[in-house]
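**Fold in tokens:**
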Amino acid sequence: MKERGKTRVCLRAAIVGLSLAQALAASPAGAQMGGMGRGGGGQQSGPTQSGPVQQRQVGPRAGAGANDDEQPQVQQRVEPVIAPPADPLAISPEVRARIGADYGPMPPAPEGPTERSFFPYYQERRGDYRFRMIPPLWLEYTRGLPPPFSAGGPRAAAGTIPDTEDRQSLIGLLYYQRRSPKLDADIFFPAFWRIRDDDSTVTALGPIIHREAPLEHDNWLAPLFFEGKRKDSGYFHSPALLTTSHWGVKGAFTLAGPYFRNRTDTDVDMGVAPFFFHGDNGNVEGARKTYTLIPPAFFYHHSSELDQTQTTVVGPVLSTSSPKQDVLDVLPLFYRITGNPETGGVKESHTTLFPFFHYGVSEEESLFVVPGYLRRVTKTADTLLTPFFSRAETRNGATSLTLAGPVVPLYARYTDTDIGVKATMVAPLFFTSDSATGHALLTPLFGKFEDYGQSRTWWIFPTITSTTDVHGWDLNLYPILFAGRSDDTSHTVIAPVLWDFAGPSGRTTIAAPLFWRFAETTDDTILQVAGNTLYRQKRVADGLEWEFHVLPIFSYGANPAGYWWNVLFGLAGYDHEGSYSRIKAFWIPINTGNAPAPARQSAFGW
């Protein structure tokens, strides 16, 4: 609650109004009302029978005549009653500590007779309560007074009268004063405020605010500066000086113009933006880290005690060091890496002067590069590359590649003794390769490629290829002829005239533009167009249904139940199906049989 002493300054004015309202509540009208309670000595009447919670008998009233008819006695239902709390506004100590309430329990109403006097000022006295005033110049409200000797009445019960005096005064409607053991106030509205709350005192004179408490103080001159101190922390803010600062046990922060300093425990970051930045985690247990950055000088330095690493950048120069290796670079031309075998690294050294020179050596390999020459040697491989001659060996000589060129006509020789591969090439005249699984031969006019027992391919200049394998064969003459078979499928293409594709489900044949045939073996469906003729066929429940057209002159068709024919699509025609028959004359159908027209529909939709 001491921390909130400053905010209570503005709340004390409200206390004045509340206190005056309380004083008026204790006026003669209030005293008269109190006389009706236990303090007024009046007698309370017995409980009434008008509420629903009392038990009331319904029937003949007592004293009725003896000749009256007896009526049954009805017992009224009793409703449950929940007693209200003794003090609905009471706040537990736990809740009060959590929400930080200023409200405290008010003293009980004064007890005893009321005494009044009107000269030289109005005064009202009852028990420990006293109210005096000379309106509107002076009002005074007091609680906790000792009982007056002139009261003549009994003292209030022990514990109900405050044992210390609490006095509040309002003078000239501008000056408010309060004196009590816990709280003192002197307020000359609106210029001067002085509030004491226990051992915390706040004084405000216009924009000047001063607060004192044990091991604490605050000094404000709004809006120029704000300063305060606690036992282990403090703050200082000055908008005019562009300065803000606060500090404590766990950390601190200061900002003064371009200067800043931030501390979290032992970790400190500071700098003058944008010229200088520095940080240090302050670790004294072997994990210290620091950095320094100076942007105008292109300077950066970072060190880590735990990793034993350092990084420094000065313009284009980059230097890093660690227990395993050291690096020195002058970007983008010079690069140098050195290993530290004494501290866990490997014995190595790499130097690059880009793009003219590179040399690197370690326990596992060496690499030397200059324009037009590369040599790399490892424990199992040796590689040499030049514009005129190149050679590479791997797996301790198990494989080898020899190249002559590419400046001169290219010669290549490759061997792999583990799998028995030998290949020779003299470009662009000759290439041959032999292995346990196959053979290859290629010249500018002829080529042969064979996988033993699997496939064989021939190539003849310029575009003829022939392939045979365990599934079938292919013959291609690009881009005109394509023919072949694979298992139960085949194809023949003579572009752009003939396309023929056959398989287990059907066959498609196109000889453009006069012949088109599409057949499906699943239901014996055939659609064939040859010139101006059309033939269609499809399997139905009892057999085949088919039709043939010589467009547009003549059409004929049949199904398992009958047949039909037409001339000029019905100029003349005849249909017959069982006992049903029909003729067509000038496209008019005429039934000639006794049976009704069949209900079945053609498989082709008519």
User: Anything to note?
Assistant: The first strand starts at residue 57 and ends at 58. The CA atoms of residues 250 and 265 lie 5 Å apart.
